[in-house]
Structure formats: structure tokens, C-alpha cells
Amino acid sequence: MSLSLTAVLLPTLTVLLLLQLLQCECNVNVTSAPPKITSEKDLAKLASTLNQQMQTAEKFLHRQAAEEAELKRSFKQYSTRTARHGWNSLRTQRQNAARIRRDAARLRNTSESIDRAFRRQFGRQINLMQINAKRYERNNDLTLSIERTVAVYKRIVELLLNLITCPIDIINALGGVSQSTEIPTSTTDFSGEITDGDGAGGVGDVYGGGDSAYA
Predict the structure, then answer these.
(1) CA nearest 116: which of 162, 161, 62, 67?
(2) Is the pTM for the entire model greater than 0.90?
(3) Could you tell me if 7 and 186 are in contact, meaning their C-beta atoms sit under 8 angstroms apart?
(4) Which pairing describes strands 194-196 and 186-188: parallel, antiparallel, or unpaired?
(5) Taking phi first (over 0 means left), then psi (-120 to 50 degrees means alpha), and beta for anything else, what does residue 2 get?
(6) Dist CA 32 CA 35 (whole Å)
């Protein structure tokens, strides 16, 4: 498989891997529509399922966070060496800059794909859980369970935001992405269809154009 094709498919494959992991470890169909809440028992089941899925997703993203840390180290080393005029040649410096830009673009695109899929999949369910929580707010244990689940959801959204903005900042610091180093983006819906471009959703929305799940 060519490097360019791998770069295009990597975000899609990463998203599919995450969905498969959630489905296998949590024993639920992650592509199903949000359940109907008709009782306190239904809400408790939704909160428990979402909490398990959020915990699994957060662990999965540790790998992305490790890539971000490595990217920061590479950029810091590059910047330090450049400031000290420590490159043997301009060609070597440009090669290293291009490598860092490619790594940053790959992390950005993969994180954007995960962000879109994550919000689209779980944003509505988080909203549904919070709306119905008001009906059973006297149940302290259930309220605490919901609050914990929302807290993990917020942490994941914030982590994904950082995993997107950090590589963008590095790319901008290196002078932007040239045509030779830019990695095309792709998005995946839950039927498995791949579409070019930005797709629906993004950092600003919870699940691609809807109301925020939290203020």
C-alpha cells in the first residue's frame, strides 16, 4: 500500500477500530439509534452503558495522546536545533520540517475523524440522558452516575480538541502544509461509506450540527 493511500485510509481505519472495540468490549451495538427512556431503569441502563463506552474510548485515545507527545518532542528538538543553526545543510532541515508536518497532518486528520464519529455517535445519547435525568433527580445514585459519565465525555471532547489544535499550531509554526506534504482528509459514516472533505460535525458541535450536550 502506498504512503499516500495509507495516509488517506488511516483516519477511517482508526475510527472503525474504535467502534469495533466499543462494540466488543461493551457488548452493545454502537451504530444503533438512541434508546427510548420510559422508566428510571431505562435511564440507569443508558447511563451505565455510556459510562462503560466513555471509559473504553478514553483508554483508546491514550495512543493518540502519546503520538501528540512525540510530535511535541520532535518539534521542540527541531526548533532548538534551528535556533542554534545546528543543521548540516538546508536540505536536511527542510526534510525534517517536512517529516514533522506529515506527522502533524496525520495526527490532525485522524483526530478530526475520531472527533466527528465520537460526537455523532454519543452526542445525542448524552443529551438524551441529561434531559431525562431531570425526571429522576431525586435518585442520588443515578444522578451521580450521570454526572460521572458526562464528565468523561467532556474530557474526551477536550482531549480531541487538543489533539486537533496542537498539530495545527505546529503546522502553522513550520510555515503551513505544502501540496507535497498535505494529507487529504476523509470521513466515515456508520454505514462504512467514505466521503472526501470535511463531512458533517466537528469540534464546535456535539454531533454534527445539533445542540450542545453541555454548556
Answers:
(1) 161
(2) no
(3) no
(4) antiparallel
(5) beta
(6) 8
Per the CB < 8 A criterion, the answer to whether 7 and 183 are in contact is yes
Asked whether 56 and 151 are in contact (CB, 8 A), the reply is no
Question: What end-to-end distance do the CA atoms of the chain give, in Å?
Answer: 44
**Residue 212 corresponds to which cell in the numbers above?**
450542545
Phi, psi of 207 (to 5 degrees): -140, 35
Q: How far apart are CA 115 and CA 205, in angstroms?
A: 10
| pLDDT one-digit tens code per residue, 138-162 | 888 888 989 999 999 999 999 999 9
What number of other Cβ atoms are within 10 A of residue 62's Cβ? Answer: 10
**Cβ-count burial 164-195 (b if 16+ within 10 Å, e if not):** bebbeebbeebeebeeebebebbbbeeeeeee
Q: Is the pLDDT of residue 199 over 80?
A: no
Q: What is the pLDDT of residues 68-118, one digit of tens each?
A: 999 999 999 999 999 998 899 999 999 999 999 999 999 998 898 888 888
Q: Report the distance separating Cα 166 and Cα 160, nearest Å.
A: 10
Cα 149 from Cα 172, distance rounded (Å):
35
Average the pLDDT over 172-176 and give the result: 84
pLDDT at 20 over 90: no
Closest CA to 120 of 195, 42, 15: 15
Q: How many residues does the chain have?
A: 215
pLDDT at 214 over 50: no
